[in-house]
Design brief:
heterotrimer, A mainly alpha (about 260), B mainly alpha (about 270), C alpha/beta (about 300), A: about 260 residues, mainly alpha, two-stranded antiparallel sheet, 13 helices, about 75% helix, globular, B: about 270 residues, 12 helices
């Protein structure tokens, strides 16, 4: 536990050293938020409510999206696969303790620093500038923070799974870019999950990708809070099991092939 | 000066051809990345289409009309990234820090042309192609007349957008010559500009619109030609009569970008890395 | 070929200004092979960058092949070849032969000359086996040979080389040196070689400029440098036991385990007498007497051991 905590803190420090990048990232992030907001302001002139979401829900969706965007699609997405391909990551396997545990702790630390430094500013800006639907009671705020943290951890797991493709294929960049579009769309980064038709809507609201964005948006808006948290918790459980399984297969493979 | 520019320009086809050959040698990964760039654009278009379908259009425009803008903006962004991806701040910053830019400066050629033509990222062809396909389908289903004039206007839109994006990246590189560290801020104008240009300009507030019409012509380069194709008129400050201004605004912006590059270069050679 | 007069370069604001190069003057004749040495951060690269037009000086003038580098950079670039050590001037992802073809177009060399020169270079530098491979897949030694070929293909009048042998194995170093020597002798190319490697200097350079903290502190032939410290000798002694050793008339430069390095001047104490003194002072298992090597000489010059600059 001590080692996990130390790695988490190291990851946190690692990321906070890039202050310049953080500030410029915030400016870009806020600009994208303004464009998305303009789109929703325009379409909600035509309808009051679509798929159970009103204008305030939609604007809340936009700014929660801006808050978790960098956390999910973090700049170091390619670091793990690159280290796997270069053979550098093999050194991790011979250290004592849980390989996966160490990786998840360190990446969670880096993710937490993004959540702490990048998420609150666009949210605070939007809360002042627009009508958002955010919880005001202390328990409500606490649940939203938990949901954001779970979304961050789900992203850590997802990054590991995407990165682990590199154990099997040198073309991981190609595979990543091919799956990125659909994953981006179905995790709700283009439109709210509720807008999808039929089975896609079911997948986007309670499927594995819902843990990234849809759940915190629902929690912020106070819609089906318990369900949204359960979706995150269940899928994170599944992610961790799958990560462990993938790592086991990869280790066997490396032992056999001398990776 | 003019002499070295002519020579630089003459070299570009050879660099492009050589890059294309080296790309085909990267095999499956290059193909997957190109496909991926296209799939990302298509995914975003599908999202926009679902949204527009749910609401029955936006700002008085139908889904097809909006997707025409969307496709042209993405094709234009792709053209700009094809032309100038190595100027993106993180990439260019790396070039400065590891001294490769000093090496470029020992060549008898325009350093700007040399840098952009040396590392062409063919994968953006996927973005251009997907944007073009979306725009073509959108035009066909929009009810607008498919005439040679409309096709010419579409080409104008994509090229004007591409040139503007190239100019933005040039300014970014000039700034990087001062800061050395790369900055993400320019993404607001390139990727953010393309996202913005993918929706009709009338939905934005006056201030935001003015910046992207008069300062950084991302807003007008796609929007104004599209107004003519669709036989529509724009809001105050971005009316269809302004179409002849597009080349002027884009050219002025490029002149500013060229000037910034020269200032950056003077600073770089004066101060050093 | 190269004329430098009062060249200075100051980095940073006035309050924390750093004199990278201070009032440097020298001349290099056409066809010369000159070494340019100095500790890290002494101002070597800054000088070379100013002479190639990459940096504009704060004060002073310079001409290379009759041109002021920072004013006529592109014209000058057609007549100079530059190899910046570890950085590549080749196209990373392209096969090597395509890089050469692009160099040919970049400098607009005549096609027949280009073909002949390239065939020669492939032969003398042994490039044949990897011409079709992308540059990124070449070993360091292969790449450095390729860089040299690319630098001389446009038939430059002046060649600036920054650490061309760093990190190379013995064989590759020899190949690079042989090539440079021949190029200087046969094509008459003026070569300025920045290096830490004293073997490079001894093998190649007839003249050595030494810069330290932005100032030229020594300028002369390699032989003159050696002569200057000609009466210096070094005695390497292996003691039977690890005990302190003091010998009158000698300075203990280093000690490592049982081994001691002593330096002394034959002007003060004759060598046989010094050996006798050492044998009297301690129980010695082995000893050897060495002439000063250039590296020592240079190190002493950096330390300011010379009574006056050698210019």
């Amino acid at each position: 536990m001590g080692a996990t905590w130390a790695l988490f803190k190291a990851g946190l420090r690692h990321q906070t050293s890039y202050r310049f990048a953080m500030v410029s990232g915030l400016v870009t992030n806020t600009f994208f938020g303004l464009v998305r907001t303009a789109v929703f302001l325009a379409v909600y002139r035509q309808r009051d409510e679509v798929a159970g979401l009103d204008l305030a829900d939609a604007i809340t969706y936009v700014w929660i999206l801006q808050a978790v965007f960098a956390v999910t699609w973090s700049p170091w997405l390619r670091e793990l696969p690159t280290r796997i391909r270069s053979g550098e990551w093999t050194a991790e396997l011979i250290r004592p303790g849980s390989v996966l545990g160490r990786h998840l702790a360190y990446d969670s630390g880096r993710t937490a620093s993004l959540l702490l430094f990048r998420a609150p500013i666009p949210l605070a800006f939007a809360a002042v500038a627009f009508d958002l639907r955010l919880p005001t009671s202390p328990p409500g705020i606490a649940v939203l923070l938990v949901s954001l943290a779970l979304a961050g951890f789900a992203a850590v797991c997802l990054r590991f799974l995407l990165g682990s493709i590199a154990f099997w294929s040198p073309d991981f960049r190609g595979i990543h870019s091919l799956v990125f579009g659909p994953v981006y769309l179905l995790s709700g980064f283009v439109i709210p999950a509720e807008f999808f038709p039929g089975p896609l809507r079911v997948f986007a609201t309670i499927g594995p990708l819902a843990a990234l964005l849809r759940s915190p948006v629902a929690v912020a808006g106070g819609r089906d809070v318990a369900g949204a948290i359960v979706v995150q918790a269940v899928w994170i459980g599944v992610f961790v099991v799958v990560c462990q399984w993938v790592l086991q297969r990869a280790t066997q493979r490396m032992v056999v092939f001398g990776g | 000066m003019a002499e070295t520019h002519r020579r630089s320009a003459g070299l570009v086809p050879h660099l492009v051809a050589a890059t294309a050959r080296s790309f085909s040698a990267t095999g499956r990964m290059g193909v997957l990345q190109t496909l991926g760039a296209g799939v990302l654009v298509l995914s975003e278009a599908v999202g926009a289409l679902i949204l527009l379908d749910r609401f029955g259009g936006i700002g008085g425009w139908s889904a097809s009309e909006v997707l025409l803008l969307f496709g042209l903006a993405d094709a234009g962004l792709g053209i700009g990234m094809l032309a100038a991806d190595p100027l993106e701040p993180p990439t260019f910053s790396q070039l400065l820090r590891d001294g490769r830019f000093d090496q470029v400066l020992t060549r008898p050629i325009s350093p700007l042309l040399f840098v952009v033509s040396t590392d062409i990222q063919i994968r953006y062809v996927g973005r251009v192609a997907a944007g073009a396909v979306i725009a073509a389908i959108a035009l066909a289903t929009s009810g607008a007349a498919v005439t040679p004039g409309a096709v010419a206007l579409m080409a104008l839109a994509a090229v004007a957008m591409g040139v503007t994006v190239t100019a933005i990246l040039t300014i970014g590189a000039a700034i990087t010559m001062f800061t050395i560290e790369g900055t993400e801020v320019l993404n607001a104008f390139t990727y953010g500009g393309a996202t913005m240009a993918g929706w009709p300009l009338q939905i934005y507030s006056g201030a935001l619109r003015a910046v992207f019409v008069w300062a950084v012509p991302v807003g007008v380069s796609v929007y104004l030609p599209t107004l003519w194709i669709l036989g529509r008129d724009g809001p105050a400050g971005a009316g269809r009569w302004m179409l002849p201004l597009v080349p002027v605004l884009v050219a002025t912006f490029c002149a500013g970008a060229a000037l910034s590059w020269r200032i950056g270069l003077r600073r770089y050679t004066g101060i050093g890395a | 070929m190269i004329r430098v007069d009062g060249l200075s370069k100051t980095f940073g604001k006035r309050s924390e200004a750093l004199d990278a190069v201070h009032d440097v003057s020298f001349e290099i004749a056409a066809g010369a092979f000159v070494g340019y040495a100095g500790p890290n951060g002494a101002g070597k690269s800054t000088t070379v960058k100013m002479l190639t037009g990459v940096l504009v000086p704060t004060a002073g003038t310079a001409t290379v092949a009759g041109l002021v580098p920072w004013k006529h950079r592109r014209q000058l670039n057609e007549r100079t070849g530059v190899v910046f050590g570890q950085r590549t001037q080749l196209w990373w992802d392209l096969p090597l032969e395509e890089s050469f073809d692009l160099v040919h177009r970049l400098y607009r060399t005549a096609s027949s000359d280009h073909r002949r020169d390239l065939a020669d270079l492939v032969d003398t530098l042994g490039l044949g086996s990897f011409l079709g491979r992308p540059v990124r897949s070449l070993s360091l030694g292969q790449r450095m040979r390729a860089e040299l070929a690319a630098a001389v293909l446009p038939r430059p009048d002046v060649l600036f080389l920054d650490e061309p042998t760093i990190g190379l194995d013995v064989e590759a170093k020899a190949a690079v040196r042989d090539f440079l020597e021949a190029r200087n002798r046969e094509a008459g190319t003026t070569i300025v070689l920045t290096t830490h490697d004293t073997d490079d200097i001894v093998r190649l350079c007839e003249r050595l400029l030494i810069i330290d903290r932005g100032r030229i502190i020594s300028d002369g032939t390699v032989d003159a440098l050696r002569e200057r410290f000609g009466d210096e000798r070094r005695l390497v002694v292996d003691l039977a036991r690890d005990v302190p050793l003091t010998v009158e008339g000698a300075v203990i430069e280093r000690s490592e385990g049982h081994r001691r390095w002593l330096t002394f001047s034959t002007g003060d104490v004759a060598a046989p007498e010094m050996v006798a003194r050492v044998l009297r002072a301690a129980d010695v298992r082995d000893l050897s007497l060495e002439p000063p090597d250039l590296e020592d000489v240079i190190r002493r010059i950096y330390r300011g051991d010379t009574d006056q600059p050698l210019r």
